[in-house]
């Protein structure tokens, strides 16, 4: 039921104060005037509160249960970081204020930038991009600006592995590059021979994440960096999987020239449904002149300023300086964890993933059965051939047992697959229970396949028609049609 369906004539949930002020006629152009009164629901305050509270209880979230989305790092976010981000001194400032009146906010952003540079091994960083894909585009535009500044106009290609996140080729294409896909080797990692064949003097960049989307560490990363740089190209790091490396190693030490981060994945901001996010981009010193403006600086008197003077900057990537409250959460998270805490995050993320991998390999095959980092990919392709039960069916059945499904059907190089990332915040009890439920569902699939194919049964909404929803979406309530 929608809030409009709760509407009853003459109900109100507010009362405006009376003001004794003189009114004057305002001439508004006719084409801007409504032809009829807006359809606003007439409801009481308690109607509104109960309606949206009930809707909230129907949502699944990481605060409700296990959320093992691979490559998304949907981990629990400490509430203290939420509290800090809501301090009045942060929420009641405005980006148009004079810089001298927001020194505290600028100091926080500057120190966050410095900490992120240390964590990633970069020399300079912008906090401006709104999220990961926006950071990707920023990084690729920096790549283009770098090559053009050298008069190297022939570099029109961006190399992307076949296991890459889908936003990688999209970002490269948006920046005007021709995307060259290279196949993974039999071990799920970069095929060095295929990379060598793809590298030429028209390649601008190799977009890579390490560990990769299969959860495997690119053990030849130093060789890869050498090959890319010898070809005159840059090495770009997709930071979606940084959670596995915190405190243990840094992209900058592996040879990466540009890094984007996902503060909303790795550094404590609840994310999903399009935001809020933050995708800082870090670069090595030789690329710093191309960063978007403004750049955060500090003078000899410890005054924090916004520098707009970079003449070779790619410009401004969004309004103002980025999603500030996301930065506050990340700052609080890093400060509270400290170096030892961040190191433990990486260690526990890897431990949890490998523990769950060993539990699940007894139930379904692991696509690349090697020691993984933060995530792994399992496949139920054989079960599908035997029973007709697909990964989607298993995902729906998991909902009946109180678990959100892992990422499905990605990466595309594995069929009927789940990409599973338990993160560092889940307990052994939760991982054991998840594996137990998965085993139960596989047993159901073999003994009562129709039970699984028609799941879920306990959710507010049953099995949806995904095809119709995609092809004939309904974006707004239609009055009079119920």
How is this structure best described in words?
- This protein is α/β, with parallel strands linked by helices.
- The chain has three domains: 3-26 and 33-57, no CATH class; 80-336, 3-Layer(aba) Sandwich (Aspartate Aminotransferase, domain 2); 344-469, Aspartate Aminotransferase, domain 1 (Alpha-Beta Complex).
- The chain is built from 16 helices and twelve strands.
- The protein has helices at residues 45-57, 79-85, 88-91, 103-120, 132-149, 167-174, 192-198, 221-230, 251-254, 263-266, 324-360, 381-387, 391-400, 428-447, 449-453, 466-471; strands at residues 124-126, 157-161, 178-182, 203-208, 234-238, 258-260, 281-283, 295-298, 304-307, 376-379, 407-408, 417-420.
- The strands form three sheets. It has a seven-stranded mixed β-sheet, sandwiched between helices. A three-stranded antiparallel β-sheet has the order 10-12-11, with helices on one face.
- Strand 8 (295-298) and strand 9 form a beta hairpin.
- The longest helix has 37 residues, at 324-360.
- The termini are close together.
- The model has no long low-confidence stretch (mean pLDDT 94).
């Amino acid at each position: 039921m929608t809030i409009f369906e709760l509407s009853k004539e003459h109900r109100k949930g507010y009362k405006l104060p009376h003001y004794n002020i003189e009114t004057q006629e305002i001439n508004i152009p006719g084409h801007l005037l409504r032809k009829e009164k807006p359809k606003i629901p007439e409801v009481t305050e308690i109607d509104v509160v109960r309606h949206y509270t009930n809707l909230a209880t129907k949502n699944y979230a990481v605060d409700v249960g296990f959320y093992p989305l691979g490559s998304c790092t949907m981990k629990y976010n400490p509430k203290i970081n939420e509290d800090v981000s809501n301090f009045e001194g942060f929420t009641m400032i405005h980006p148009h204020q004079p810089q001298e009146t927001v020194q505290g906010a600028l100091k926080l952003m500057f120190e966050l930038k410095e900490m992120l540079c240390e964590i990633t091994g970069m020399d300079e960083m912008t906090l401006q991009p709104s999220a990961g894909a926006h950071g990707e585009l920023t990084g690729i535009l920096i790549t283009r600006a770098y090559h053009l500044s050298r008069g190297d106009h022939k570099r029109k290609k961006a190399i992307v592995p076949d296991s890459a996140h889908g936003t990688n080729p999209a970002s490269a294409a948006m920046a005007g590059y021709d995307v060259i896909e290279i196949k993974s080797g039999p071990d799920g990692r970069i095929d060095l021979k295929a990379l060598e064949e793809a590298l030429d003097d028209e390649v601008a960049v190799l977009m890579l994440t390490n560990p990769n989307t299969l959860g495997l560490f690119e053990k030849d990363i130093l060789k890869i960096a050498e090959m890319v740089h010898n070809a005159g190209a840059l090495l770009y790091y997709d930071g979606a999987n940084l959670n596995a490396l915190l405190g243990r190693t840094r992209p900058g030490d592996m040879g990466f020239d540009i890094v984007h981060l996902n503060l909303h994945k790795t550094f404590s901001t609840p994310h999903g449904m399009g935001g809020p996010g933050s995708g800082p981009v870090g670069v090595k010193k030789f690329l710093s002149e191309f960063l978007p403006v403004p750049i955060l600086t500090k003078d000899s008197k410890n005054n924090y300023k916004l520098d707009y003077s970079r003449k070779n900057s790619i410009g401004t990537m969004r309004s103002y300086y980025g999603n500030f409250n996301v930065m506050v959460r990340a700052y609080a998270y890093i400060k509270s964890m400290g170096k030892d805490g961040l190191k433990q995050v990486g260690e526990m993320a890897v431990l949890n993933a490998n523990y769950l991998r060993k539990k699940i390999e007894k139930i379904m095959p692991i696509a690349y059965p090697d020691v993984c980092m933060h995530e792994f990919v399992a496949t139920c392709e054989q079960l599908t051939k035997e029973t007709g039960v697909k990964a989607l069916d298993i995902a729906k059945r998991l909902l009946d047992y109180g678990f959100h499904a892992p990422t499905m059907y990605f990466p595309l190089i594995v069929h009927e697959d789940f990409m599973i990332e338990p993160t560092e915040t889940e307990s052994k009890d939760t991982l054991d229970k998840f594996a137990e439920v998965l085993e139960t569902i596989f047993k159901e699939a073999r003994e009562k396949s129709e039970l699984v194919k028609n799941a879920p049964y306990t959710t507010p909404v049953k099995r949806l028609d995904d095809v119709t929803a995609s092809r004939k979406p309904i974006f707004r309530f239609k009055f009079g049609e119920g």
